[in-house]
Amino acid sequence: MIGEATIPLREIRELNTKKEVKIIEEIKQQIPKNTGSSIV
């Protein structure tokens, strides 16, 4: 808990967004190209 508390919330948010981007990219790769283009 002490180690986590020293990390600025901004950095934690950036890490979370990076994780989300990775997950989204993985999902896009799994979805067929034609379906992915319509979503984007």
Would you kindly provide a brief summary of this structure?
By secondary structure, the chain is an all-alpha fold. 85% of the residues lie in helices and 0% in strands.
What does this structure look like?
It is built from three helices and no strands. The relative contact order is 0.10. With about 40 residues, it is mostly helical. The mean pLDDT is about 75. The chain has one domain (about 1-40). Helices cover about 85% and strands about 0% of the residues.
Please provide the count of β strands. 0
Q: State the low-pLDDT regions, or none.
A: none
Portion in beta strands? under 5%
Our measurement of the CA-to-CA distance between the termini, rounded to an integer number of angstroms, reads: 39 Å
| Biggest sheet details | none
Mean pLDDT, nearest integer?
77
Structural class determined from secondary elements: mainly alpha
